[in-house]
UniProtKB/TrEMBL annotation:
Residues 118-131 have a biased composition (Basic and acidic residues). Gene3D superfamilies: 3.30.160.20. It comes from Roseomonas genomospecies 6. It comes from the Bacteria. Residues 99-139 are annotated as: Disordered. InterPro entries: Pep_chain_release_fac_I (IPR000352). Pfam families: RF-1 (PF00472). One of its GO terms (molecular function) is translation release factor activity. This is Aminoacyl-tRNA hydrolase. Residues 21-37 form the Prokaryotic-type class I peptide chain release factors domain. Keywords: Hydrolase. Its EC number is 3.1.1.29. SUPFAM superfamilies: Peptidyl-tRNA hydrolase domain-like. The lineage of its organism: Bacteria, Pseudomonadati, Pseudomonadota, Alphaproteobacteria, Acetobacterales. GO terms for biological process: rescue of stalled ribosome.
Length: 139
């Protein structure tokens, strides 16, 4: 079990890792070894994540989430497969931690008297500028 928060833990069997060739510089090493890691986590089917966290996780993941609800993370920052695995798992944990924090509710506020006055003064000044551009009025 991977501990994410005190109330959320992930089962190792829910994570599917595949190893692929990394892109970029590295010469023969990069061309011969499968050091990049592609981690797939089925958020929709996970029983360990509450529904409210799942909804926030879908929003946070963005394009990394498939239509079927599978989160795909790719790690190829390091030359070592082990370090890439650790990096991808840490990014998954961070993403779930961020999703587990509920957003603070917005409190309605009113603009201050001073800000209202500044806004109206700006509108009046802009109106004068535009009126100055008008040509003479003919009857």
């Amino acid at each position: 079990m991977i501990r994410v928060t005190p109330r959320i833990s992930l089962d190792e069997s829910e994570l599917e890792e595949s190893f692929i060739r990394a892109s970029g510089p590295g010469g023969q090493h990069v061309n011969k070894t499968d050091s990049a890691v592609q981690l797939r986590f089925d958020v929709a089917a996970s029983t360990n994540i509450p529904d409210d966290v799942k909804a926030r996780l879908v929003r946070l993941a963005g394009s990394r989430m498939t239509a079927a609800g599978v989160l795909i993370l790719v790690g190829d920052s390091y030359r070592s497969q082990l370090r890439n695995r650790e990096d991808v798992r840490e990014r998954l944990i961070d993403l779930i931690r961020d999703a587990s924090v509920p957003p603070k509710p917005r409190r309605k506020t009113k603009p201050t008297y001073g800000s209202q006055q500044r806004r109206l003064e700006g509108k009046a000044k802009r109106s004068e500028i535009k009126q100055g551009r008008r040509g003479p009025v003919s009857d």
